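Here is one chain, start to finish.
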Amino acid sequence: MLSLWSSVCRLVQAGSRATTLQLEPPLVQLAVGHATRTLRCAAAATRTPSSVAATTRTATPRQTAPQPPDTDNYHKPLHTQINAIARTMPSAPPPWPTNQANRQHNVDLRRAWVPSPVVPAADVDGPGEPHASESGQSSGSGSSGSTHRSRKDRTRRGAGDDGATAAPGALGALQASERRERPQSWISYLHPKRLFAHRRSRAETEDGAVEEHVEGRSETKRREVAPAEWRAYGYWARPYINLPWGFRVNNATPPDSPRELSPAEVDAMLAGLREPGGQTFPENWVPRVTHFSLPPRPDLWPTPPQTFDPLPGTLQLNPWLTHRATGPSPLHFDLRLRAEDAQLNTREDRYGARRAEFRAFGPNGAQPATYPGVPRLRICALAGDAQPVFWWPFTVLAHHEALPVQVRDVLDALVANFEERMTLEEFNLLSDERAGMLHRAYGRRTALVVGGRPCPKDDGLRRVDYLGDNICFRGLEPMPDGEGFMMFVGPPP
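Its structure:
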């Protein structure tokens, strides 16, 4: 009874300690559940020997008598036990993006550029599936930790196959050797199977080729881009010339008449970026110039052809644009604001209380939106929309034909699409409840100050008001039919 009373006290103290320690709701439930299980074990330990013997006699062979609880763990602090159990629980959300550009990684014209260390990227089987050597580790695209097997390797076990089965290759070799050792008569060559074997093998070969082609489309191997490789393109596209001046230049957009500069011309161009008085002229920068202090262009994103239009499921989205089913999104982007107002939810605080600057016009926004790079992205659906068809599908175009679609292009296209005004015909199609939600969203939007300017009170309904409270962009996912991407929105964290 003494252990039972101590367990009751610990159950009461679990809620108070959880409140005092300010644990997260899942950990509070974990603490209460742990205390409840301890109470049950303590109650079972206080049974009389006769009751325990009766329970043992009537129990089935698979059931065992309850064991007394481990009294050594009772003397440990409650938060220590909770943290020990929480470390064994799998993490539900995908890993936090690590492709954020380092603000201290700048260009010093007096020193050679030092690239970020790149973790070798592995070829994965199918989109979102890790390599067999990396099983148990989730990739940046939110892939699971299970290994992938092709459809040919997934065979159904027969009714009598209770034990281990031999490998398909070893079994085929064994059967072939048995057929060679079996004596055959000349009459067997007149069998229809032998006479039409060539025709049948040819037909099977053609069918197998078609099946291999279909499997190749569904299980194509693509390359997983490392976070440092996303950052490398952003550093090359929008480098910050820290020393000796201190300004950012646009290095990705090619000039109207591109030409290769000699080392003397490069030095003259750099000297013309600043006057002796201290005034800077970033517009004198010649894009795509070669210099030992500048980051090189990554080979993963060459100039995409304008006719390149792959299936959305074959593309790897940038971690800034990847949709997360639960938890806050790494990119906090209010669609009522501008692209340069986008922020980052810090990794340390998953509830969005602290945010950092995203700098859409810097290396973060200059990262490619997909791998491989594409000249356009089609967004044709809105997740959770009550309408049977999305009213305002749009296409994201690269801001230059020599560049792939970048993260900044996606943010600009989202703002441009949802800042359009709604028509009277579209408003009349809404229900009374939805119309009231639009009016409330309109009142909140007109109270905002965007870019230092207040919104006029007679601005009129815009498409962003149709979203109601779900005004934050949460990422993209490929459409099931392969026609484009579906965008996700949600309320602020």
